[in-house]
Specification:
Elements (H helix, E strand, L loop, with lengths): L1 H9 L3 E5 L3 E6 L3 E7 L2 E5 L5 E6 L1 H4 L9 E4 L2 E2 L2 E2 L2 H15 L9 E6 L5 H13 L4 E6 H8 L10 E6 L4 E7 L2 E8 L3 H16 L1 E2 L2 H11 L10 E8 L5 E7 H25 L2 H10 L1 E4 L8 H9 L3 E3 L6 H11 L1 H7 L3
Helix pairs in contact: 3-4, 5-11, 6-7, 6-8, 11-12
Amino acid sequence: MILDSILGFFSNDLAIDLGTANTLVYMKSKGIVCDEPSVVAVAVDGRRRRRVVAVGKEAKDMLGRTPGSIVAVRPVKDGVIADFEITGAMLKHFISRAHNRRSWLRPRIIICVPYGITDVEKRAVRESAAAAGAREVYLIEEPMAAAIGAGLSITEPSGNMIVDIGGGTTEVAIISLSAIVYSKSVRMAGDKMDEAITGYLKRKYSMMIGARTAESIKITVGSAYPLEQEKKMEVKGRDMVAGVPKTIEVTSEEIREALSEPLRVIVDAIKVALEKTPPELSADIVDKGIVLAGGGALLRNIDVMFREETNLPVMMAEDPLTAVVRGSGRVLDQEELMKAILTT
């Protein structure tokens, strides 16, 4: 116990947004110290034993380009841990990197989790963090963290609506008095948008592209609502009929058509949340509007589309990509907020 308290004294506590697409680490009093893709490259030997070769950006660069003995995997799927062992190795890497490789430090860690995940999934998160060297593990629900990171006044008796569009899940939540009044989580977010683009090009052009290319198309020409000046992009892939490399040009109108189904699921989730909101809180949301966070909120004109669909004001959080980890970090820095919100 004495050793534990000494190590705790010297450690720097961390908040981790363990996302499907990216993992961000916030260190107490220092801010964001790590922002890397949630990808691990694993070498598999003849006995099926796995050895971690690379983590983060270095591993993401290997996606779709590895020999048979090395596999680039994403251990977090739809916001929850799909591979316990590899997630633990990934967390250990990011924690030691945040602490400049001083692996003997044992920090307290806050980890963001999707709203409504099961107790089994929560236990997997806790055990992965403990295996990575955490002294204590706390969980915070992503919509709550996103609301805090977006600067919403969550402690007041007033309704706030946050829509957090991540890589694996979209969280829609109504928050009041430091608690989630209603939340809906749908497994439709950035990854499903990439899959929709891949499927569209397969159907229309008989062309196969990889996940990284689909993501690049989404970032470069993707939009949720018509643009003032539509965009074009050259895309390289494989012709599914001839089996040879192929180059085509896609437009933002085509990609918008490809993204229409995933975006419709998110809009429906927002409308369901608005229907379930108590009348008094609905009045607050009419005044305050909807706040968007998460990497998916960076899709061009997504705020315009939501405004058209809901007839409510829609605002973007400052730096939506880091809103969740910044919110968790704020909880880490404020002891009273920590006691009010966190669960162990």
